[in-house]
From TrEMBL:
This is Zinc-binding alcohol dehydrogenase family protein. It comes from the Bacteria. It comes from Nocardioides mangrovi.
Length: 318
């Protein structure tokens, strides 16, 4: 079969021949892959830089996708850590880490949205004790995951949502936000975050430190819990957190992702989220790219604001 193949961590995947996959466990099955999202997590997998990465090469990238099983059922699936990812004509899935989709589901839409939407959905439903009416700040609200976090927080009952980003023109495009605040505007960020209950942080690095310096001194009630959820790290892998911030206010720092949320808890959320995405609850900006163009897709994804979705060849006959 054809697949996207990584043979070196400093090169984009190439469109190459690859052996057909075979299931080994009792819950495994082969699916024809229809769509696989080119998420930041997939880029770091292919670069060998994700925290789950091993040095094993070659590898087929792709952590999730939509495929059709041998019985004809369309499935959204999440793969375990594997060197046989979803950017191939066929891959092996564990059916327990998948959810059946209606036959008219849009594979590209689902493959584009599930990973970025899960980041806030799982954080709010599985990682922290979020309650309807609470006030949410999204740090990094103009990316795919951040934009969806604004909508997911609203959908799950947030009392108010503040979107924080570095570009005014992109913040202005966001709908359903109570406040849109530039990261560099310490005063406005402090005012918006003063009574927040939750921060969903996609940035980390210096951006997180700057946001803490803006928000913590402006807390209306220092004893009000502020749960700061580390989700992404587009602005830096490390952040020098001011020690006083953790003493002076009831600031609690947690992370949400693969590992800090059990796989069974993530899988338990797949069906409901897929249904919401399928019925158009959230705006999704996706573009399909043939698997044969995967090398160019890697270049384009570095600057595209849309979520690129790799679409392997049509399923084999018979
Ligand atoms: N933990 C989880 O469960 C989970 C799940 C999915 C994703 N994530 C992580 O979430 C992060 C975002 O993912 P995504 O899909 O939204 O990526 P994306 O669509 O590529 O968006 C990235 C955003 O980051 C912003 N950005 C980049 N560098 C920045 C900086 N120095 N300061 C401020 N903003 C900066 C960009 O802002 P502009 O719009 O201004 O260019 C862009 O909007 C990634 O780290 C990803 O790995 C985590």
């Amino acid at each position: 079969m054809r697949a996207a193949l990584v043979t070196s961590f400093d090169q984009a995947p190439r469109y190459r021949d690859c052996p057909d996959p075979t299931p080994t466990g009792p819950h495994e099955t082969v699916v024809d892959v229809l769509a696989a999202g080119l998420h930041p997590r997939v880029r770091s997998q292919a670069a060998g830089s994700h925290y789950t990465s091993t040095d094993t090469l070659p590898l087929v990238p792709g952590i999730d996708g939509v495929g059709r099983d041998a019985g004809g059922t369309l499935r959204y699936f999440v793969l375990p850590d594997t060197t046989l990812g979803s950017m191939a004509e066929r891959t092996v899935i564990d059916v327990r880490r998948s959810v059946a989709l209606p036959d008219d589901a849009d594979p590209v839409l689902l493959a584009a949205a599930m990973n970025p939407a899960m980041s806030s959905w799982v954080a709010l439903r599985r990682r922290i004790d979020f309650r309807a009416g609470q006030r949410v700040v999204v740090l990094g609200a103009t990316g795919n995951a951040g934009r969806l976090a604004v909508e997911v927080a609203r959908h799950l009952g947030a009392g108010a949502v503040t979107a924080v980003g570095r570009r005014a023109e992109l913040l202005a495009e966001l709908e359903g936000v109570d406040h849109a605040v530039l990261l560099a505007d310490r005063d406005a960020l402090g005012a918006a975050g003063g009574d927040a209950d939750v921060v969903l942080d996609y940035l980390w690095g210096p951006a997180t430190v700057e946001a803490m310096y803006a928000i913590v001194p402006r807390r209306v009630d220092d004893a009000q819990r502020l749960t700061w959820v580390q989700i992404g790290s587009v602005a830096g892998l490390e952040a020098p957190i001011p020690s006083a911030a953790l003493r002076a206010t009831r600031l609690e720092l947690v992370g949400s992702g693969q590992g800090s949320v059990a796989a069974r808890d993530i899988v338990a959320e797949l069906g409901e989220l897929a249904a919401e995405i399928g019925r158009g609850t959230f705006a999704v900006d996706a573009v399909a790219v043939p698997l044969a163009d995967v090398e160019q897709a890697w270049v384009d994804a570095a600057t595209s604001r849309q979520r690129l979705v790799v679409t392997p060849s049509p399923p084999r006959a018979g």
